[in-house]
Amino acid sequence: MSDEKVNRSEQPVEELEELPQPITGDEVIEGEFVEADGSSPEMEEGETGDAEASSEVEEPSLEEQLLAANEEAAKNMDSYLRAQAELANARKRFEKQRALTYVNANSDLVSKMLPVLDDYERAVDTVPENISEDPWYQGIELVYRKLLGILESLNVKEIEALGTTFDPNFHEALGTEPSDEVESGAVSRVMLKGYKIGDKVVRPSLVYVAD
Q1: How many CA atoms lie less than 13 Å away from 90 in the CB half-sphere?
Q2: Is the pTM of this model over 0.85?
């Protein structure tokens, strides 16, 4: 038994596999020098070179900067002028639409007032002379003048007809008749006065035309 123990103790101990040692300091890995932190001097030099190259890019000259600024200013001025023109056109369209709305609204009112005006005019034109000085008739003339003032405030004007050339835009012919007072094609007689607001005809004049 003792011999076996001796023999066993004399047997050589198997060599242990060598464990990898931690990398310390600077080491050469596959022919490349690497710092302890894993960085490479060549990489740092390359990065530094790129930074230096980018810093060496030529800046535009003063003349080029001035030219670019002038072009930008011209574009801004063109945009400003376009915006001003569009604003002016929009304002004109608004004013025109507002005026048209005003005329259309007033034309309906005036068209209803014109028959009353016609009656007053017939009464004034046919009043007998013996009562033209009576106070009650003076009251009728006062109301008539007030009515004319209201129509004038609404920019209502009488359409010229007698003696003028017949115009279908403002006159409505009831017929033709011979006349020694006006030329052929002119209005010889007005049966009913016409009125307009601005250029809009509220009621055309009813006329006879000389043949």
Answers
A1: 6
A2: no
